[in-house]
Amino acid sequence: MKTKKEIILITGSSGRLGSATVKRLAERFQVIGFDRAGDPHPPTEAEYVCVDLTNDESIDAGIHRVREGYGTKIASVVH
């Protein structure tokens, strides 16, 4: 696991509101951004995981990536 900070998962992390939320929370939390492939400006303060929230398999793969890298505890999901 990379960090001892609590994990915050943010959907739409490359959008206007999502990226502002990432920047605000990154000082206190380990932020993981979920967003679609091809978004032009993923935030640098978070790990970016490509996820299509309309596809169950894509969500499963994204959660699996988070579990492998950070463990099973997520403090919060911001959607």
TrEMBL record:
InterPro entries cross-referenced by the UniProt entry: Epimerase_deHydtase, NAD(P)-bd_dom_sf
Domain NAD-dependent epimerase/dehydratase: residue ranges? 8-65
- May I ask which residue range the UniProt record assigns to the signal sequence? none
Determine the domain of life of the protein's source.
Bacteria
Q: What is this protein called?
A: Short chain dehydrogenase
Q: Could you tell me which species this protein originates from?
A: Gimesia chilikensis
